[in-house]
Specification:
The chain is an all-alpha fold. It is built from 11 helices and no strands. The longest helix is centred in the N-terminal third of the chain and has 40 residues. The radius of gyration is 19 Å and the shape is globular. The protein starts with a helix and ends with a helix.
Amino acid sequence: MPAKGRDRQNRRMSRAGVMVLTVLSMLAFAGNSLLCRAAFNSSRIDAASFTAIRVASGAAALFMIVQMRSASRERAGSWTSAFALFAYAAAFSYAYVGLTAATGALLLFGAVQATMIGFGLYSGEHLHGWQIAGLACAFLGLVGLLLPGLAAPPLQGSVLMLAAGVAWGVYTLRGKGSGDPLLVTAGNFLRAVVYAAALSVATLPWATLDGTGVACAVASGALTSGIGYAIWYAALPRLKVASAATVQLSVPVIAAAGGIALLGETATLRLLMASIAILGGIALVILGRQRPR
């Protein structure tokens, strides 16, 4: 085969590989919501124990991945970032005691993107045209979702999931430019084990465990968190900034579909309309950032 033909084939294979990695990572991120919700639906595990097992399993998986990739003993991460990671994981677990997979994922990723956008505005960025309309649309969608009513999600769980999203947004912002993202994440997971263990000790009188709950927590930590992040960081350098941001908006949709198909959840009209408003509005803000002025 001529050299040009081989180059074109390699580029096509590269694009196909990036697409596969991206799809797998989005499935993994949605899987976190499904596994956490399944644990509280089908087992007696408490939120603190789920958090501790998830964080420890994620730390173990990431440590092994880093060791297989490189024998480097370099230390990465920080205790502050590890606390933000722990705060996300703990709030995420406690929120899913009462939220459906779809509602939780929507609130989580909406809060993450809102935190990123808010930090950009604080740093001097300005919104223009459709971006302003998109931000207003997303805000109205969130208000509509949380307004009191029969179809409204539990307020406590909603606030906890919003807090989880803010914590993950802070964690993401702190990680920008901090070096190898996989190595940094592995270091932060290892440190977060200390915080998660402290939470487990503090809530020990209320701890409950069973095989199903532990299995869900291990899968959430090792597979959909540890391996999921490794896959995402492999795809991320080959994605444009706008593509990387907007593709993550598919996670609530995947979680909603999984919740309906696997957990017997139902999609309400309120959730559907809020999803369109929140995800569509955020997409307008993100895509507007990439247009030349």
